[in-house]
Write a structure and sequence with these properties.
heterodimer; A: 346 residues; alpha+beta; seven-stranded mixed beta sheet; two-stranded antiparallel ribbon; B: 695 residues; five-stranded mixed beta sheet; 30 strands
Amino acid sequence: MALGDNFLEKIEKEAKQLQALTDDLLLESRQKWLGKDGIIKSLFAELKTISPEKKPLFAARLNNLKEFCEGLFAASDQKLEELKIAKSLANEFIDPSAGLLAAGIGRISPITYLERKINQILKPFGFEVISGPEIESQYYCFDSLNIPPHHPARDMQDTFYVEGGYVLRTHTTSIQARIFHQAQQKKDRSLPIKIVTPGKAYRNEKEDANHQAMFHQYELVWLDHDLTLAELHGLIEHILKNLFGKERKVRFVQKFYPYTEPSIGAQINCNLCSGTGCIFCDNCGWVTVGGAGMIHPKVLIEFGFDPEKVSGMAFGLGSSRLAAQFAGIQKLKPLYEGDLRILGEV
Amino acid sequence: MIVQLKLLEELIEIADIDHRTLRGIFDILGLEVKSIETTEQNIQFKIELLANRGDHFSHLGIARELAAYLGRQLKPLNYGKLPEKNNKLSIKVDLESRLCLRVNLLELELNNFKLPDKIARFLPADEIGKRPPIVDLLNYLQLEIGQPMHAFDIDKLQGCLRFVELEKATEIKALDGKTYVVPAGALVQRDQKEIVGIAGVIGCANSACDHKTTRVLIEAALFDPISIRKTARAMGISTDASFLFERGGDFENQLLALGRVTHEIDIQLGKAAKDTLSNRKLFSYEDKPTEKREVAISPAYIKHQLNLPSIDTADLIKRLTAIGFKISAKETANTEQEIIFEVPSWRLWDISRKQDLLEEYTRVLGLDKVPSKLPPLSYNSPPPNKTLEIQESLENLLVNRGFIEVVTKSFYSSNEVDLLAKLSGDSKGQHIQITNSIESAYSHLKITNALHLAHLAARNRRMGLTSVKAFEFCKLFNRKFKDRDQQFEEDFLSIIFCGRWHTGLWKKPPSREETLGAFAGLLKDIRASLKAKDFKLSQAEYPLLHPGIQAGIDFGGGISGYFGLLHPKINSFVGINEDLFYFEGSLKALVNSPKKEKNLKSSDFPAIWRDLTLRLDKRQFAESAINIMREAAASHLQEIQILDDFTKDGEDFRRVSYRLFFESMERTLENSEVDDQISKILKTLENKANLKLAS
């Protein structure tokens, strides 16, 4: 091949004709024009045969030709790529709705949720969260709390006895007794003592949908100078309104607990029947959520505190019942049956 | 207790209050209404009484509370005349026990006494006429004024009536026709021949009145509450009388009650009664005069405690008087400073200090009248609860991986204990037994949570769940714990998994190996969440797990938990035929695990890695080689990862490939020094565990 005007002109003409080809045919010509041994490369190699005076002109024409070809093929490549993508988009289909494989999000139990929430509500008051043994001595569970042997109060809490004279604690108040006792042994009379004791308690009774031999309580104890019954009301109301919303009604009724005097019960209006009466609230429209009172002087004396100088308030929430209310579950049983369909939803 | 509205209306004017409002008042007063039954003639409230209030166990007791709350007067009751206390009855009476606090015996002739209709309407219609009228009358009067009374047929008593403590347990036939064993030490009434009554609990059939009885001895007494309680519990019986006496009766109600008896009899008999008056005799005993207890309270104390703007002293006195308190003769001149109240004879059991009076006043005032006041906030944060913090962090981790927290019971049945004992090859020695459970399923305390969570998994799978991912923080109970910590119990975390790691039934589920790997990975994440320094898996022999698919877990302080596949016998026991992956670990060990030191430095120099494939026995842990490699290597060994685990056809060993990453903080490591490290590692592997490169 001799590179001359005519020849170059012929090649340029042929290149222009490439524009008329389809993209597929154009792709077949790529190698011929731009390949390692293609026309463009060969023409550049022939430049050395051109006289020096013509060389710049020829070189410029060759560069234009190269640019023209590259542009032409690049546009064609892009088109082809788009076609390929379009083809695959048109053909490929996977139904995402048929292959859901979620790892899932679990839940903490409504009881734990409730306990954590109350911990948060009480944080500004400075309560320490304490736990204690569930197998308890009768001293901490009863005797130190003004419940002597054969006291009728023990009717309320028929007790599981285990070997060695121990009992399964009937209330988490036993932790309170332990803390007071520790303070007494250390001869530490520093006040206030502010503790909360969430945990399990046990009653040896026949079970039904609403009565469980094992249940949860959340107790609060505050020992200080000059605490009042009105402040106990205030604190309980603060907890319940923060838990259930300001619109829920709270009321207090008389109760008897041997370790408090005066003793009160805290009730909220039933959210399942909106106060009109249902099976959950014994048709009275109110649900008792906890017992409370000012710590009995005898209990204070038992642990070496002077009831004329020191007063205390205690509040025990039935956290199982409260959690059920909170979660909108009508009965306590599902909380302890581990039905994941329910527990995963609440 | 069943409170009858009509009977209540005999004692206090409340006709203007509808029964729903009345229920609300009862609730506030601590008289919890369990149900209301409405008939054409009457409305009955089933009320749960407070455990310390024997005085509430009568309509009069309830009426007193209403009177104080509503500010109304009680209607007066009529009492008949009683004979002089001449103590000379037809039979001899001997009181030989200090458990008798009050004993009053009225001997009288019935002279064809019939139960008046006005009383009969308050007794169950189907029982009228079954018992002699005098017995119905006494039952009615207990309902009305709260004094249990018993009528002996005096002609059936042999010679005398003795109140004695029983020397040895004795069988008796009671009024209800049943036979009971009365425990030694019980206070009983007996005549010359035999026991005729169990004081304060129930009478005996041998001395009971019948329709032919003409002469009766009516006992109105007060007995030691603890003695009555012990006796009734031992006999397995609770009567109206024992219920009241256990809670403490009224020290001064006995003669009043007998007065009510004579009044009703005289009214009914009319003129005929007069003929028998001369034959009435009365025996009366009290161990000591009724205490005149006085308790002082200041209005200022009440005002402060109840956050009231002021205290109306007159109202305070009026309300407490309505429930039986009297202003003491020692009344102070200035009632603003202190008021001294005399405690009524029926409240001597539970009123002794100002706090008791505060409770009385608050109740009858209405707790809804006490304005709430928020106690002061604290500026001192309480010390952190490390265990709780760890627990919360683990909860978050598990919840974010799809696990649901559950709460299972702390108990086991004997069957479950048998299974565990069989699996572990131990006796039942470590199980703690409950000695008095009324539920047979609750005979022991759980030593492991494996069975409960296995049951839970099986139940949920049966209900159609494709995946069970559950965890629980709970106490486990074991005698051997006592040796360690002076307590029988310890906190554990247990996790169970079965089904598909991801929800959905699409395509085939992951293999057992993949699931086990995912489960082990979860535990590794727990380590990361705890920032624990170490996490080692080692071969273990935990009897509740599959012997070939399990590991012991060490978070740095020794093996503190186990995980793997639950033993197939547990699967059979709970009725599930699929793999149950289980972890159980001590929470204390997790909390106390040595923490990893913070290393926030990163190297600017490239890491060099080498791959090794070792021959491992089929039952050898891949992790065991990692532990040896770590021990053998210099500090430049940063990480070891397992690349592959495979067995070629016909080979009786596994090939496990590891990738070891070496990196220096100061410089780029030379290939030669990494190779030296590898040589050292290989030598140690061979020397310590006979582990060689796979060819």
